[in-house]
Amino acid sequence: MGNEPVQAPTLEKTTEEVARIRDIIFGTQMRDYEQRFQALQRDVQRLQKALDALTEQLSDQDSSQEKKLQALRREVRKADDELRDELRGTAQKLLNSKVERVDLGQMLIELGTQLRSGSSLDETLHGLAGTGEETSLDR
Questions:
Q1: Residues 18/10, Cβ–Cβ less than 8 Å
Q2: With contact defined as beta carbons under 8 Å apart, do 123 and 114 qualify?
Q3: CA 73 to chain centre
Q4: Helix or strand (DSSP H, E) at 117
Q5: Mapping DSSP to helix (H, G, I), strand (E, B) and coil, where does residue 18 land?
Q6: Number of independent structural domains in the chain
Q7: What is the pLDDT of residues 63-105, one digit of tens each?
Q8: Considering the domain boundaries, does residue 125 fall inside one?
């Protein structure tokens, strides 16, 4: 037991000497490495903040573009509906304003009758105008 207290200070002294020698040999390199490591950590933090800001900006732009796209879709749908309504209205006007086959046939029969009877061109046109008015009034 008497030997142990003598060895402990020697072991402690040896450990301190090794640490001091290590500090002398590697101390400047370790400090350089520590400074570089801290600089890299700062750079990584700065880049992470920039990345977070860009991600947020991209998210904002994405939502903005999505809103614009929805508005554009609504506008196109509205224009399409208006165009279809206008086309239906035009088609309905054409259906209402065209001469029906029956009326056209009647007018041609009247023209043939006028030509057979030998009436003049004025009488034929007057007769056709009367037939056309009658069919328009019948509606």
A1: no
A2: yes
A3: 8
A4: none
A5: helix
A6: 1
A7: 999 999 999 999 999 999 999 999 999 888 887 776 677 777 8
A8: yes
